[in-house]
Specification:
Protein name: SDR family NAD(P)-dependent oxidoreductase
Low-confidence stretches: none
Radius of gyration: 17 Å
Family: Belongs to the short-chain dehydrogenases/reductases (SDR) family.
CATH class: Alpha Beta
Number of helices: 8
Helix content: 40-55%
Number of domains: 1
Keywords: Oxidoreductase
Strand order of the largest sheet: 3-2-1-4-5-6-9
Distance between the termini: 45 Å
Strand content: 15-25%
CATH architecture: 3-Layer(aba) Sandwich
Largest sheet: 7 strands, parallel
Number of strands: 9
Shape: globular
InterPro entries: KR_dom, NAD(P)-bd_dom_sf, Sc_DH/Rdtase_CS, SDR_fam
Structural class: alpha/beta
Mean pLDDT: 92
Domain Ketoreductase: 3-183
Order of helices and strands: EHEHEHEHEHHEEHEHE
């Protein structure tokens, strides 16, 4: 039976690469996005061109009702939910001590609380599936911290804790839960950055280069497939040292 996987933030960057990779692996894709309809339609056209089975779902995971309702929408359309890739996220960079509360609250609502609400709503369906899996996209920032991105790093670190708890709690029921922690990855977000802003990250990695979204997608696909890895965070960071 073909498995259905929900990918949040699935129309840009890492999420888009994950969608393409899982399509090649034969999954049916439920692709959620927040508001960029152009990117969503572009991704849909790309997936159509390779014959992928997919549907798009607009949902703002910072909205509790939209996050909670999304899994049921997917099961109504596909009949099952076998995997979840929690990739949706945002950042709002700035000095933490001078940042207004509403700015970091939005990051918390999307990256952490949105992921928690969605996962909670998806669990009853996942636990009915054959060899279900969750992969949570954290970040190197959640492992080592990141100056100027304190709120973002905090949410990503919290997701690592969530991964560990979910894996221990639901592993006995057959649900595998793991995370990936990408380092500095080449996406469209890089276009606005000067090389001087990330050169120190490249120099701090063993491979001395920027990673590609496809390399993160490979790790996600690996963790979705049946295996003995559980409640673990896989760093995809080129051997970054700090």
């Amino acid at each position: 039976m073909t498995k259905t996987v929900l990918i949040t933030g699935g129309t840009r960057g890492i999420g888009r690469a994950v969608a393409h990779r899982l399509a090649r692996d034969g999954y049916r894709l439920a692709i959620a996005y927040r508001g960029d309809a152009h990117a969503a339609q572009q991704t849909a056209a790309e997936l159509d061109s390779i014959g992928a089975q997919h549907r798009l779902y607009q949902a703002d995971l910072a909205d509790p009702q939209q996050a909670a309702a999304l899994p049921a929408r997917i099961v109504a359309d596909f009949g099952t939910l076998d995997g979840l890739v929690n990739n949706a996220g945002m950042t709002d960079d700035g000095a933490f001590l001078t940042m207004e509360g509403e700015r970091y609250q939005r990051v918390l609502d999307t990256n952490l609380f949105g992921t928690m609400r969605l996962t909670s709503a998806a669990l009853p369906y996942l636990l009915q599936a054959d060899r279900p899996a969750i992969v949570i996209v954290s970040s190197l920032g959640g492992v080592v911290g990141k100056e100027g991105q304190v709120t973002y790093a905090t949410t990503k670190g919290a997701l690592i804790g969530l991964t560990q708890w979910l894996g221990r709690k639901y592993g006995p029921q057959g649900l595998r839960v793991n995370a990936v922690a990408p380092g500095f990855i080449r996406t469209d977000m890089m276009d606005s950055l000067e090389p001087s802003m990330y050169q120190h990250i490249i120099e701090g990695s063993a491979l001395q280069r920027i990673g590609d979204a496809e390399e993160v997608a490979d790790a996600v696909a690996f963790l979705l497939s049946p295996g003995y890895i559980q409640a673990t965070t896989l760093r995809v960071d080129g051997g970054f040292q700090r």
